[in-house]
Amino acid sequence: MASAELIHELHDSRLVAVLRSQTAEEAMLTAKSAASAGVKFVEVTLSVPGALEVIAALARESTVHVGAGTVLSKKQAEAAITAGAQFVVSPSSELDLIAICHGADVACYPGAATATEIYAAARAGADLVKIFPADCLGGPNFIRQMAGPFPEIRFMVSGGVSLTNVKEYVHAGVTGICLGSAFLANTLADQGERGLVNEIKEFVKFVARAKSQK
Question: Has 130 been annotated as catalytic?
Fold first, then answer.
């Protein structure tokens, strides 16, 4: 899928499950649970043991769009793309990854935490600018403030997403809303696969309801 089409589909569905699991098996189970709940995008952080193999397996299964997270170098980006990642995400402003991703028609989402970083990422060609950590920066209010001077920039948010603020993020026009790795891992540990699916379904419902109210 071309990166422009991928962005369009992400904006339609909004949610991204971020996997920072302790094992490859846990990552696969979490991805399966997210897909069962209706989430179409999964980000596998490169801190997951065997992350590239997990990305490759999810890419082969084609049940979700899979990307690589916590990508901090050109070498990592190239390896993730080779494994089948459809998008590459960084927590920081790794702008040198954008050209590598675009050369492979893969979407690139560098991180930003200030207006200067946001604009620099946009000028460099970022497909989305990842606001991280979103909760510490002001959450939905920060997005609304940044949308004033930068109305054409599309955002992803990561950090502190919850049922109490996901509606605000949708109404603020955020394209990618990340379900945090700690939330996913803790829910899986405490409630098992069925409980995780049910919890994620609530986010899917809230997003659908928020979109209908815009």
Answer: yes
Name residue 16's beta-bridge partners.
Answer: 41, 178
The residue annotated as part of the active site, out of 26, 32, 43, 199, is: 43
This model's pTM is above 0.85: yes
Which DSSP symbol is given to 121?
H
Residues contacting residue 208 through CB under 8 Å, at least 6 positions apart: none
Inter-residue contact 183 to 23 (CB < 8 Å)? no
211 is catalytic: no
- The secondary element (H helix, E strand) that includes residue 18 is strand 15-19
CATH number of 3-213: 3.20.20.70
Tell me the percentage of the chain whose pLDDT exceeds 70.
Answer: 99
Tens of pLDDT, residues 73-111 = 999 999 999 999 999 999 999 999 999 999 999 999 999
**Residue 154: what residue type?**
R
> For tokens 């995780």, what's the residue?
196
- The CA distance from 83 to 23, in Å, is 18
Indicate which residue of 26, 40, 94, 130 is catalytic. 130
